[in-house]
Amino acid sequence: MSPNSSAASPLDVGVIVPAAGRGERAGAGELKQFRTIAGIPMLLRAIRPFASHPRVCEIAVALPAECFESPPSWLAEVAGGRLHLVRGGLTRAESVLEGLRSLTPTIEVVLIHDAARPFVTSDVITAVIDRVTSGVSAVAAVPLGDTLKRAEAHGTRISETVPRRGLWRAQTPQGFPRTVLEQAYRAWLAKGNRLDATDDATLVEAAGFPVDLVPDRTTNLKVTTADDFLVAEALAAR
Ligand code: C5P
């Protein structure tokens, strides 16, 4: 699929970037999403491909509450009217909800992309947008390559090998018709936020809507640990 296949379509896509996590698994020091990879802050790398995409008209970035009043100056590079900041919540889902509430009402397609994925490509952004434009929610994903083991509840003894056939690793961007995402979040709030969702498709699936998988690259990795930063540096140096 060409990254420009949506070029003639209207600017009707809003993007939410939840960037309000503490990133504790990456170790002490600067917030993970502000740390640089080959000299460029991870959050900036995550936003740029959306800021330059022909269908995207608005990007809402959820920042940790303490950064909201004085955001990093390098965010100004992508400001240009398209970007606005919101105060993140205590959980990822709350941060996304703040972003969703802030989007211009005319936006009909909403993408959500983790600040911790700095190597998203414009091809997969376009593929997700195209699927959503056809009416179905879509998740960038990679078929599982490893063998999966489940450990006993407390400890490291294997209790089960989970057949990997048909299993995919959900990445971001994840895209939704806005009305679908709003209904899913309304249902989540109505149930008292009890579902512990680590991605947005989980809420949309729980609300009974279909969600498609869109094949993505493994290089669109989520930078979580200190080791992931080593891999990210190597990828950035390519
Ligand atoms: O913690 P996890 O790795 O699932 O975080 C995924 C994304 O959600 C990260 O980009 C993180 O900054 C964001 N997040 C957020 N608000 C929170 C927790 C996580 O925006 N309260």
Notes on the structure:
- The chain has 238 residues and is α/β, with parallel strands linked by helices.
- It has a single domain (13-233), classed as Spore Coat Polysaccharide Biosynthesis Protein SpsA, Chain A.
- The chain has 7 helices and 11 strands.
- The chain has a 7-stranded mixed beta sheet with strand order 5-4-1-6-10-7-11, with helices on both faces.
- The longest helix has 13 residues, at 178-190.
- The model is unreliable at 1-8 (pLDDT under 50).
- The structure holds cytidine-5'-monophosphate (C5P).
- Cytidine-5'-monophosphate binds at residues 18-21, 33, 62, 88-92, 95, 114-116, 198, 224.
CATH homologous superfamily caption: Spore Coat Polysaccharide Biosynthesis Protein SpsA, Chain A
| Strand order, largest beta sheet | 5-4-1-6-10-7-11
Given the structure, what is the number of helices?
A: 7
CATH architectural group = Alpha-Beta Complex
Main sheet makeup: 7 strands, mixed
Q: How widely separated are the two ends?
A: 23 Å
Could you say which structural class the secondary elements and strand pairing correspond to?
alpha/beta
Q: What is the CATH class designation?
A: Alpha Beta
Poorly predicted regions: 1-8
**CA-based gyration radius:** 18 Å
**Outline type:** globular
Could you estimate the helical fraction of the residues in percent? Answer: 25-40%
Heterogens: cytidine-5'-monophosphate
Number of domains: 1
